[in-house]
Amino acid sequence: MDIWALLVIPLIVSVFIALVTRKNEELSSYLSIGAVVIGFLIVLPYLLKLPGDPHMHPIEQAFTWISIKGLKIEMGTLIDPLSIIMLFVVTFVGSLIHIYSKGYMHGDPGYSRFFACLSLFIFSMLGIVLSNNLIMIFVFWELVGLASYLLIGYYFEKPSAADAAKKAFLVNRIGDFGFILGIFVIYYATGTFNFIEVEHHIAAGHVSSGTLTLAALLIFCGAVGKSAQFPLHVWLPDAMEGPTPVSALIHAATMVAAGVYMLARTSFLYAAAPDAMVIVAYIGGFTALMAALIALAQSDIKRIIAFSTLSSLGYMVLAIGVGGTGAGMFYLMTHAFFKALLFLGAGSVIHACHTNEIWEMGQLYPKMKTTAVTFFLGSLAMMGVFPFSGFWSKDEILSATFQSGNYFLFAMGILTAFITAVFISKLVVVTFFGDKKYHGHPHESPKVMTIPLIILSVFAVVAGFAGFPGLEPNFGTFVHTAGAALGEHGAHAEHHFNFMVASLSTIAVLGGILLGWSIYSRKGMKSDVMAERLPFTYKFLENRFYIDHIYDTYFVAWIYNGLAKILNYIEVNIIIIFIINGSAYTVRQIGKGLRLTTTGQLQNYAFVMVGGVLVLMIIFAAIL
Amino acid sequence: MEGFPIISAIIAAPLVAVIILLFLKDEMLWLVRAISVATTSLCLVLSLYMLWAYDKAKGGYQFVERIEWVKSLGISYYVGVDGISIAMIVLTSFVIFTGVFVSWVGVKQRVREHYIFLLLLVAGVFGVFVSLDLLFFYLFYELAVIPMYPLIGIWGSANREYATMKLTLYLSFGAVFALLGILSLYFVAGAQSGVYTFDMLAIGKLSLERSYQIKVFLPLLFGFGVLVPLAPFHSWSPIGHAAAPSAVSMLHAGVLMKLGAYGILRIAMGMLPAGAQFWMPYVAVLCLINIFYGGLVAMSRKDMKFMIGYSSSSHMGYVLLGLATLNYIGVNGAVLLMFAHGIMTALAFSLIGFIYDQAHTRMMYDFSGLAKKLPFVAVAFAIMGFASSGLPGLANFVAELMVFIGAFKDYPFQVVIAVFGIIVTATYMLRCIRDVFFREPQDKWDGLKDATTFVERLPFVILIAVLLVVGFYPSIIVDIINTGVVPLVDKINAVPHG
């Protein structure tokens, strides 16, 4: 019962704000905040019970949604360690971001609309987490897409925001194209959409390995879209057009991680399809490295963090791909804390400076100490410095990769860690220290914004200990249990602390910090020194490998201006003008010609009649 | 309500209203509108009552009425509804009820005549959906088509003469083929059984020869297919939508196109199972032209009505794909999609009409930033666009999902194209929303007014509510559709494959 309330309350609140309280902004914001906080309070007891019962039996509740002959679709909830952890992340980070938004969005003309959309998002996101079957997860998957669309396009008068919203939705649609086909493949292979039943069918060996690989890859398409993996990553940086709390909640902490959650939820499928896993791992590894490289050459504070999000998502997908579901989920959780923190910190900075350009900031530390300190802690976690949370979770991913025996991917992971350290150091140094470049009088944000920062920073620092190897049961135990029916990949998921891996990554990170710090802490730097020293590389990275450009000029133009125009030409000129109007014209001309025969003169008619009779007589004579 | 001729009441209500309207004066605007609202709300109430009172456990045709008409020819006034008909009746009632309000706002000239033709048309549509006699089916079918001619010709916008001529010619052309098939059925079935009758159920019970079924299926498929519209016989439809006044576009896209699909389902597939087995796989290929070609042409259109027009023919391709599956899931999905798409396009045309009546243009590039000025219309339009793009929570998603699941087993390739078609739909719908409603507002549109009054808002609210209710709780209508689909599909699959 209480589980359904998780879904119903935010939905009702969202509708209620839209229909009733939209004029009363204060009340709207309280309702929305209340909905997500209540959600958190509902989840909390489940979370607290978890350490005592790490191998809990999944609780499933469902009702029939569609039932016709030959097809039954349910809507249902599945509570197991995996969903509990994700519920906690969503409602906890969600609550803090809602509270922060109350301050951040203050005075905005669309205040109520913002909170209605946020509640709609919370409803949809919790729907994904709770789903017990593939159709339901797809339904909510699309609904978070809607919420994301509405919030990216929140400032819809801005053409760039309108474009970004459309792009996000459509690029996600391309991923979902594969996702839904994958769902159909699974349905026809197993006869069910239910996760647990599908898992049993696969474990029992009812499905051929070719089908499994196909299904796994198709379903992975959905994650590629939602979690912004290469080649569908292009929407996420543009999504920064949305208000900053939205970037923190949807485009960093929760929604984009839904792809990873979905992969974890269907990890039984990937465990049974090793070929697909290799592809998953490479896509993840490549995205991580590519995004980190691109981040090097960005100067918009939100964009830098956005690309680091892309990179982190690549890390998580890499973890799933090498069989480290637990590691991936662990990283997801810690990432939610430190990335939300970084975004909210960035929001606080933007709020104060009224610009996104880091080269127009500098020396903010004395002006906004709370923001600076929490941001600094978040950065350390993000880079994965011992003993911050990012260290533990990143280390799990790296050791899972190492154990899988794919040293190439492992090297990519280490390299990514190094580059991440470089650009995060640059971000921190240029924004908070360095030369004073800001205009006006930046000041610390109000308490409603800084308190969430402080809480998040605490979690960003300590959350890593949930996966502390000495702890029993630790994080890995819970998530591992989620896929327990399949013993095979569980072996990977178990955490082995690898001293070699940890020291390698620490060396990489410290090296990166050192490099970043030494380059960007120099006095008198006006713009990025990299642009001067390595102009071509910088340009290439700044333009995001020209991937967006290629899509726009080749694919989009090809379909919009090519194929669609050609078909329209065929429609208008060939089908309508030539065939249809042409046949009408022919009929009309024939009629015009025949009209001449109706002269109205009796002798003409008699003549034709006699002629006709003669012709008929000849025909009959010939036949007889 | 036992014994009350509920179906006849639904058909008669608009006809009675027509007669009353004939005796009124043009100036009695208020009374004309009141009568139209009253009669269509009566239809709506009665059809919702049928939805509620239909005995799902029993199934089959219910609320049956039969009066012998010409005994010697086997013609009788024979009406009844099964699950499929009820869904269509409910759809029609919603569209006409909201359409009357849309005309209230939009039609300013010859109001009385407008309502007369509108109600005549609707009586015909109701008649088609309930007829169990082939001749009456055909008569009602013509009754539904003919009023389109004056409705577009008199109250239409740009290019109306061309559009209405084309539309009427096309539909009459299709109807002739359908009539050919119907007469053939009458004579052949009569010769076989010795009893000449237009009784659809009686003819349906005969086992006609396979080769004959295959032969006569084709004119029926083509005849009704023109109305669907089956590509490449679709070009009457977008221009018909574009030229028609809002309420007529709503009925045209919302209901008339469904008559074609209903004809294929009820007459062609329902009475010629072997013919369906033979021909529907071809339909499964042809429908790709609708889906893919129609979708991409819609993408390149700048006129919103043309865009929705081509989008409609694209989406009717999904209906055809669903019908072609010949299995429970796909056919159920097709019928539900007929319903959902009918409501969704009605909403689309009513909204575009609302803007056009004020702005006198429908070109997307003429607009920007309307969301600031017309927030209510913008939200309604966005809901329509997302429904059309198959967003969960709205009725179209459920229907399309069922079509895809049903078709995936036998036609995986088609499903891939069809799912791709959904992306195409989302592309042009979102682009339209972006162009028209988003971006910076322009001064020249400061004079536009949002839907604020009850009469203006009611149709939008009702149509959106239907989309949402069915989207969230599809069983409310799927359960009933299913009772009609199961016997039909069973019958087709009972025929041994030749």
Describe what you observe in this structure.
The complex is a heterodimer of chains A (624) and B (498). Chain A is mainly alpha-helical. Chain A is built from 26 helices and 2 strands. In chain A, helix 15 (325-353) packs antiparallel against helix 17. The radius of gyration of chain A is 30 Å and the shape is globular. Chain A starts with a helix and ends with a helix. Mean pLDDT of chain A is 87; it is low at 481-494. With 498 residues, chain B is mainly alpha-helical. Chain B has one domain (6-493). In chain B, strand 1 (62-70) and strand 2 form a beta hairpin. In chain B, helix 3 (83-106) runs antiparallel to helix 4 and helix 11 packs antiparallel against helix 14 (328-359). Chain B starts with 5 loop residues before the first helix and ends with a helix. The mean pLDDT of chain B is 91. At the A-B interface, strand 1, helix 5, helix 6 and helix 25 of A face helix 12, helix 14, helix 17, helix 18 and helix 20 of B.
Quick structural gist:
The complex is a heterodimer of chains A (about 625) and B (about 500). With about 625 residues, chain A is mainly α. Helix content of chain A is about 75%, strand content about 5%.
Secondary structure elements and pairings:
The complex is a heterodimer of chains A (624) and B (498).
Chain A: H1 2-19, H2 25-49, E1 59-68, E2 71-79, H3 81-104, H4 111-130, H5 134-152, H6 159-190, H7 195-203, H8 209-226, H9 235-238, H10 244-253, H11 255-265, H12 267-271, H13 274-296, H14 301-321, H15 325-353, H16 369-383, H17 389-404, H18 407-432, H19 447-462, H20 475-482, H21 487-493, H22 499-520, H23 529-533, H24 535-542, H25 547-595, H26 602-623
Antiparallel strand pairs in A: 1-2
Chain B: H1 6-22, H2 29-53, E1 62-70, E2 75-81, H3 83-106, H4 111-130, H5 134-145, H6 148-155, H7 160-193, H8 200-205, H9 210-227, H10 236-243, H11 246-271, H12 273-300, H13 304-325, H14 328-359, H15 370-373, H16 375-388, H17 395-408, H18 412-437, H19 454-472, H20 475-494
Antiparallel strand pairs in B: 1-2
Helix pairs in contact in B: 1-2, 1-4, 2-3, 2-4, 3-4, 3-11, 3-14, 3-19, 3-20, 4-5, 4-6, 4-11, 5-7, 6-7, 7-9, 7-10, 9-11, 9-12, 10-11, 10-13, 11-12, 11-13, 11-14, 12-13, 12-18, 13-14, 13-17, 13-18, 14-16, 14-17, 14-19, 14-20, 16-18, 16-19, 17-19
